[in-house]
Amino acid sequence: MGYKFELRERAYQFSVKLIKCLRPLFSDKVYRTILNQPIRSATSISANVCEAKYSGTEKEYARYFEIALKSGNETMHWLRLISDTAESEVKGMEELKKELEKILKVIAASLISLRRKQKK
Q1: DSSP type of residue 89
Q2: What is the pTM for the complete model shown?
Q3: Alpha-helical regions (H) of 24-92
Q4: 65, 107 Cβ separation under 8 angstroms
Q5: Which of 21, 22, 26, 55 could form a disulfide with 92 if both were Cys (CB 3.0 to 4.6 A apart)?
Q6: 69 in Cβ contact with 104 (< 8 Å)
């Protein structure tokens, strides 16, 4: 329970931090439209990791992790885009990207392990 709970909590806390980090940009018209995307994809990571817990089969469990991984990669795209286009440094952005990389590594490792287990 500890490992999987930690991932769920980390993914959830990542979503919270991302929303707080991006909040100051909402007043900028250019970012108003863009910001919906990373918020949706980031919250999808934690939602799918949580949903996996209640899946009925290992195949379904793996599918939720696949979606979480894809959402994480999309989130990284949006964070990079925002970082590269912001007129000034967005406070906390680099820490967010580092945390997302760690979360993605855990999800990817979990998927590899699940796929090996399914082949047996």
Answers
A1: P
A2: 0.90
A3: 29-34, 36-53, 58-85
A4: yes
A5: 21
A6: yes
